[in-house]
Amino acid sequence: MPKAVIWACERIMRNFLWTGDPASKKLITKAWHKLCCPKDEGGLGLTRLENINRALLLKLVWRITSHKDHWASFLKAKFQSRIGNWISYYKQSSIWGGLKWAIQGMEKNFGWIVGDGNDISLLHDAWCSTEPIADLISNNGSSFDHLARVSDIIFNGQWSIPSTIADNFRLANINISTIPPPLLGEDIRVWKLRCCATDKRLQGRGINIASRCSLCLKNIEDDTHLFWICPFAANIWTWIHELFGFQWTPYVQNFETVTAHATTRSAAIHDLWAAAISNVLTEIWHHRNSCVFNNIPASSRRVKSKILANFFECSILMKMILHNRVEDLMIFKNLQINPRPAKPTRVLQCFWSLPDLDQLKIGCDGCSRGNLGPSGAGVILRDHTGNTIGAMSAGLRICTNFVAELLNIIFGLEWASDRGW
Questions:
Q1: pTM of the model
Q2: CATH assignment of 361-418, given 3.40.50.10300, 3.30.420.10, 3.40.50.970, 3.40.50.300?
Q3: Structure confidence at residue 3 (pLDDT)
Q4: Per the database record, which ranges form the RNase H type-1 domain (predicted)?
Q5: Taking Cα atoms as reference points, which of 262, 274, 112 lies closest to residue 185?
Q6: Mean pLDDT over each residue of the chain, to the nearest integer
Q7: Which listed residue, of 16, 92, 190, 273, carries a Cα 20 to 30 Å from 305's Cα?
Q8: Distance between the two ends of the chain, CA-based, in angstroms?
Q9: Which residues neighbour 301 within 8 Å (Cβ) at sequence distance 6 or greater?
Q10: 3-state secondary structure at position 223
């Protein structure tokens, strides 16, 4: 929204507030920006249109950068260069000024989860570190192709990094072995970690405030204390661990160690535990904001009730099957949600028989690591005595399990036919 329109709308609102007539003026009794303050600060609790406009601009930039709709693609083509950077020169547009302001505040906090790598710039996006590679090396990536994508260094679902690019990774102090493997789906734009506006982080941005945790009212407030060490947060974590039958160890916990608790459990428990971690972190932050901005006293009971309510919504969307074990059933009972029935195990007998005289039997199998994922196929031929006549294996690149099985049958028949078997 243009500033002139905002000023005109606020003038109408101000006139109506003081005179009851949008067209009539009156001597200002109190400054408009003071009226837009919260009621407990002497204002009327009104929201300035300028702040609403800024919030909408930030949301618009996020949708442009993370969506693939036609309108988003059009705006990116209009305001981005060929390498994917936002333009820095003037362009006649009624919306570019506002978008430029929002981009400057958001771009440094963007990150990526690598799928197939087609949407991620190898040089100019933050996908393997907190900053783009171009900002981390002194030569500004001159040995790179500025149009290169991350997909250029992915082969068969694994990293395949040429030596010239690997040298630049070392110059940027990026350990290639620590980069997670690509997920082989769509690339996902995400908001970086450690962006919550805690007191400690606000102090680091130059805001002069006294830091005190609003939940325990004792220590300074930073990420580690607020989400992990604070007695209030530790109480929530201990409670949620007890519901799942896991062990909570104070002062040595972080996101990685907490997520590892469910690695050996069923898929349903694994999904529930991931939802539990997300719910706890989210509700701690929301409750902290209520304490800071609404002067609501900290209440662990209120947080726990919200977390249990969230579990009910998660259970409706859950698709995974649990193991038919007492431990899994107890977790569902503790969370007050209905478990999905486990599929009964069926034992089927299979018999392999030798082929008839003067015949060959083709044994073939195809599979993928993940569905979709890197796939392969193997074929073996045996005669009527069980002796191996020939064998063959091949890579199938990226496909599903079903497609891998079909391709393997076709390859086996073609291979046997070419050799006259």
A1: 0.54
A2: 3.30.420.10
A3: 79
A4: 356-421
A5: 112
A6: 83
A7: 190
A8: 74
A9: none
A10: helix
